[in-house]
Amino acid sequence: MPSQSQAFSWSDPHSSHYDATTRRSHFSGFSLQETSYSVGDCVLLSPQKDGDLPFVGRILGCYADASQVGDLSHCIEVRAPELRIATSFHLVEMIVQALRRCRAFRGT
Q1: Rounded distance between C-alpha atoms, residue 84 and residue 37, angstroms
Q2: Disulfide check for 102: which of 4, 12, 13, 42 has CB 3.0–4.6 Å away?
């Protein structure tokens, strides 16, 4: 099984923007375990704490932080929650509605 760092890559490293003040290289997107994500996409996220509910969030930015090393340098900013998932009943319908709201907000 590959480690997370082997399954992670930046979408277009040649078009990244480096900010010398923050020591960050900003990217338009990334791939994780063969799935591509872009800034502005909505994603279903697992909670960090046991017992918390999954939620839909929007990717605000992604960058490599030169002040960190290894996997800690891969930074993804997400605005959340777009939607808290309360129960498994109608889960698919709730996710589709949240993704539609995200796309409408994004203008796509």
Answers
A1: 21
A2: 42
